[in-house]
Amino acid sequence: MSGHSKWSKIKRAKGANDAKRSKMFSRIVKEITVAVKESGPDPESNPRLRLAINNAKGVNMPKDNIERAISKADKDGANLEPLTFEGYAPNGIAVYVDCLTDNKNRTVSKVRAIFTKYGGNLGTNGSLTFLFDTKGVFSVPVTDKINIEELELELIDAGAENIEEDEGMLTITTAKEDFGNIQKKLDALGIAVESAGLQRIPNDTKVLEPDAALKVLKLVDAFEEDDDVQDVYHNLELTEEVANAME
Questions:
Q1: Residue 84 has pLDDT above 90, yes or no
Q2: Cα(74)–Cα(35) distance, integer angstroms
Q3: What is the per-residue pLDDT across 195-234, written as a single tens digit (0 to 9) for each?
Q4: Predicted TM-score (pTM) of this structure
Q5: Looking at domain 2-76, which of 3.30.200.210, 3.50.4.10, 1.10.10.200, 1.20.1250.20 is its CATH number?
Q6: Closest C-alpha among 95, 96, 99, 107 to residue 82
């Protein structure tokens, strides 16, 4: 899990600039749109929308933007289709790309082009299933009000598999089936969550030299900058050397 936790930290740091924040907002708006289309505009009766709103607040998305996104989705939001792509970056690094799109042909073309441009190749869906597990992942800021030891006991009882603290942030990982239990427990305890969702976590990670790793991360960045892409997952181990080379 070390690579996953480090990647979460790097993504938080990268999200600080305006361009990255704009992409984050765009992706959350898409998630709000899908949630509203699926189960309506009332977050009280729509858990997916409630989660999207929470994630929007976690990246400081203005309240007006959130309400506007819900209203637009309820009236005339785009019909977005989820698409998943699997392939390999250079040096055999496995890459999962999750998309939401209103134009399947456009998205397929762009994803294939990014793989090709950065020395990777698009595979067939299902080819990477054995390399990743779908887990619930929660990011919780540590505050003075949180007793970490007591919270850990509560969360383990609710189904948490792994809890890591790093630079003022708790990363809580749970089985897909226990995602709702952890969400309810955190709500009941009044614990603020910066972000939460289901993520594809690699069963094992692969170590590359920094120069080779940076080539992989260029491909990952290219996907993350694409408007149709919601999330990118990979099994590259983000070592200290690689993290330092990124700076």
A1: yes
A2: 10
A3: 999 999 999 999 999 999 999 999 999 999 999 999 999 9
A4: 0.87
A5: 1.10.10.200
A6: 99
